Amino acid sequence: MKTWIAFWNILKKDMQNYYLKAPNISWGLIFPLAWTLMFFIRSEQAVDINEILPGVMAMSILFGTTSMLAVTITFERKGRSFDRLLLAPVSLNIMVLAKTSGAILFGIINAFIPIMLSSFVINFTNVNWLIVLLAVLLIAVSSTLLGLVIATSAKEVFEAQTFSNFFRFPMLFLCGLFIPINDLPVFLQPFSYTLPLTYGTDVLNEALLNAGLINIWADIAALIGFTVLLFILSLSNINKKWIL
Question: Which listed site, 14, 62, 66, 156, has its alpha carbon 20 to 30 Å from 105?
Answer without folding.
Answer: 156
